């Protein structure tokens, strides 16, 4: 991922035939977080040298790594030349070499990452070149005159305004097109440092970029987007959502930054926990869904929005729930929404205007009391709740056709769970009203109206039908399957109560092993501790959720340290306590000095009283009211790296603390994690 670049050297010949420019480029490598922590860097730097010879009609691009050059050597060379037999053809050659001497014991991992990214970049190269050629054609530029040496200054000045100068080619980063940057933004990365770069200032967005990808924004709305994006960049150095996605959350909360930030952070944590970003690549829907779920994508509406068709009346919701369970249905709906986001990006490129939502056409022909089966309605309400929280402002229009008499009953059950802004986008037609004025033809072209609605377009959406009872499964089978579906994440959830911390036991056999952790505070404020004991604690005791009036199994609570144990005698503290606020994320490590048992503890944080009075502060009272039933929630992941598997300096492992799911820029060694955290906060 290209981040920024600085010009190191630049040379131009007097006749402008030769132009050489050397840049130092800052890149964000798509590598596992643990590998970045071990390496001790967030970004890597490459030096790129472009040599354009207009006289010889050649362009040479050389690049090599500056970061870790004593451990890894990367050299790349690209060459553009004119074909010797046909001057209208361009020849392209590319070669690269990778030599990994040592990399903290992760040599094979680095090699796989490098080869994967290099292969994807080669595949993307042709697409990027064609993209810019098309941009030139749209600007009316189909021919660039060949360079000719200047005869005289007067002649040069008289013809300069008719000749478009040939800019030096650059290595366009693969992330440029993925992140939705327009032509002007990417080309400006090659300009000199003194020139303003369009679309990149911190306090203003490029007007062409807004028009092309975001739509009409007032100055206030633009300012809200920039401020929220900057906050994410400062506190969430992982995968930053695109501007279009951030804008959806702002619109859902009428551009109230605080409210939008809250629901966006919750959504990012949810996506991270359930690995929603990878659902399209890693999850294949069961065959039952592919055969009996009567829904699918079907062209687009008149506004260019992707069109999703759902034949709800023909769908056996009871059969699907009995055969698959709620979790499989929910995951399938999530994959549909992820596909919708992808199609919106594609249509934005195709139609040349921002398209950030899709249209849903729901046919209720066949809807009856069978669809009001209570578990089915419960599953539907849960799906609506999840979609509303994590995909706001993605539904542009909902067309409900052939609504039967039973529909008002279903609408009464469902409508309270739908946001007011979303409800305004609903258009409901009873019977055949959709065929008249103000009906379907106002929103969808006649050529793509599905055949089952009287149109001429064959719709490949499954027809649904009753799910065979032979495919039904027992409650126990469904429960096990549900657990399997939703535990494909390396993170675990835990509840922390007042007086009942959550503790994790790690047994260390060899000294100098490395314990790493990564956790998010989803709710409430907690104190994080690390203890060491020479003797093993008693078997874990799970706290009774009923004692805290908790009815849902939202997270486990395990206590290991016996109440009769005394600190300093039975166990010792090896790290200073770390106070973590709600919404924060903490990553760090600890190099063990002794073998034995280490206990990671998340404890409820009691609000301190004001130093000068026994009365609590107003801020503390307000904060305490937000923690219902004195309950906190954390999502955590731990890993132990054995000393024999770790090569290089132990000091490269660093502890960091951030505002939200990031590796902080200001980090110190693990032994100073507490003071480091306070400084970075």
Rg on CA atoms, Å: 30 Å
Nearest-integer average pLDDT: 75
Can you summarize the main beta sheet? 6 strands, antiparallel
Helix content: 25-40%
Number of strands: 24
C-alpha end-to-end distance: 27 Å
Structural class: alpha+beta
Helical region count? 19
Low-confidence stretches: 153-203, 483-489, 542-554, 610-628, 646-681
**Spatial strand order of the main sheet:** 1-2-3-4-5-6
Shape: flat
The proportion of residues in beta strands is 15-25%
What's the short story on this structure?
By secondary structure, the protein is an alpha+beta fold. Helix content is 31%, strand content 24%.
Describe what you observe in this structure:
The chain is 31% helix and 24% strand. It is built from 19 helices and 24 strands. The strands form five sheets. A six-stranded antiparallel sheet has the order 1-2-3-4-5-6. It has a six-stranded antiparallel sheet with strand order 12-22-14-20-23-24. Strands 7-8-9-10-11 form a five-stranded mixed sheet, covered by helices on one side. A hairpin with a 7-residue loop joins β5 and β6. α8 packs across α9 (257-274). Residues 153-203, 483-489, 542-554, 610-628 and 646-681 have low confidence and may be disordered.
């Amino acid at each position: 991922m290209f981040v920024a670049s600085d010009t190191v050297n630049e040379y131009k010949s007097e006749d402008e035939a030769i132009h050489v420019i050397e840049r130092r480029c800052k890149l964000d490598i798509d590598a596992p977080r643990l590998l970045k922590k071990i390496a001790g860097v967030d970004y890597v730097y490459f030096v790129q040298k472009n040599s354009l010879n207009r006289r010889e009609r050649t362009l040479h691009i050389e690049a090599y790594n500056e970061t870790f050059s004593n451990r890894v050597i990367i050299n790349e060379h690209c060459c553009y030349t004119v074909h010797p037999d046909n001057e209208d053809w361009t020849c392209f050659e590319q070669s690269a070499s990778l030599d990994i001497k040592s990399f903290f014991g992760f040599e094979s991992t680095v090699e796989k990452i490098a080869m994967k990214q290099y292969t994807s970049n080669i595949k993307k190269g042709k697409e990027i070149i064609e993209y810019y050629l098309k941009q030139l054609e749209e600007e009316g530029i189909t021919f660039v005159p060949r360079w000719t040496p200047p005869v005289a200054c007067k002649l040069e000045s008289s013809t300069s305004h008719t000749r478009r100068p040939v800019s030096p080619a650059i290595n366009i980063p693969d992330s440029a097109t993925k992140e939705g940057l327009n032509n002007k933004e990417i080309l400006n990365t090659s300009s000199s440092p003194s020139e303003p770069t369009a679309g990149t200032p911190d306090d203003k967005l490029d007007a062409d970029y807004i028009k092309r990808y975001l739509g009409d924004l007032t100055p206030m709305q633009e300012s809200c987007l920039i401020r929220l994006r900057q906050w994410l960049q400062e506190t969430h150095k992982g995968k930053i959502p695109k501007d279009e996605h951030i804008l959806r959350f702002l619109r859902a909360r009428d551009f109230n930054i605080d409210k939008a930030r809250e629901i966006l952070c919750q959504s990012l944590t949810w996506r991270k926990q359930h690995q929603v970003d990878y659902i399209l690549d890693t999850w294949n829907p069961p065959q039952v869904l592919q055969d009996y779920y009567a829904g699918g994508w079907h062209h687009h509406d008149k506004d260019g929005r992707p069109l999703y068709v759902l034949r709800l009346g023909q769908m056996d919701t009871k059969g699907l729930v009995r055969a698959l369970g709620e979790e499989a249905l929910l995951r399938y709906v999530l994959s549909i929404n992820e596909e919708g986001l992808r199609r919106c990006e594609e249509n934005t490129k195709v139609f040349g205007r921002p398209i950030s939502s899709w249209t849903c056409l729901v046919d209720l022909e066949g809807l009856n009391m069978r669809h009001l089966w209570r578990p089915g309605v419960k599953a539907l309400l849960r799906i609506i709740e999840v979609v509303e929280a994590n995909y706001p402002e993605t539904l542009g229009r909902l067309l409900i056709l052939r609504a039967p008499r039973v529909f008002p009953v279903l609408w009464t059950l469902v409508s309270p769970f739908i946001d007011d802004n979303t409800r305004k986008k609903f258009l409901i037609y009873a019977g055949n009203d959709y065929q008249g004025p103000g009906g379907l033809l106002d929103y969808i072209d006649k050529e793509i109206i599905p055949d089952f609605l009287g149109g001429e377009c064959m719709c490949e959406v499954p027809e649904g039908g009753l799910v065979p009872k032979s495919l039904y499964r027992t409650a126990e089978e469904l429960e096990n399957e549900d657990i399997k579906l939703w535990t494909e994440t390396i993170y675990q959830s835990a509840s922390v109560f007042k007086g009942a911390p959550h503790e994790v036991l790690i047994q260390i056999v060899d000294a100098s092993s490395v314990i790493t952790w990564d956790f998010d505070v989803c709710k409430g404020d907690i104190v994080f501790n690390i203890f060491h004991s020479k003797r093993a604690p008693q078997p874990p005791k799970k706290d009774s959720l009923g004692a805290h009036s908790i009815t849902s199994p939202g997270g486990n609570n395990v206590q290991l340290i016996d109440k009769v144990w005394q600190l300093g005698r039975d166990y010792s503290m090896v790290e200073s306590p770390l106070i973590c606020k709600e919404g924060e994320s903490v990553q760090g490590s600890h190099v063990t000095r002794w073998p034995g048992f280490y206990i990671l503890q998340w404890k409820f944080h009691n609000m301190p009283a004001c130093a000068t009075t026994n009365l609590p502060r107003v801020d503390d009272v307000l904060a305490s009211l937000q923690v219902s039933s004195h309950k906190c929630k954390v999502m955590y992941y731990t890993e132990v790296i054995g000393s024999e598997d770790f090569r290089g300096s132990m000091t490269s492992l660093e502890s960091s603390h951030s505002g939200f799911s990031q590796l902080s820029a200001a980090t110190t060694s693990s032994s100073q994690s507490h003071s480091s955290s306070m400084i970075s906060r």
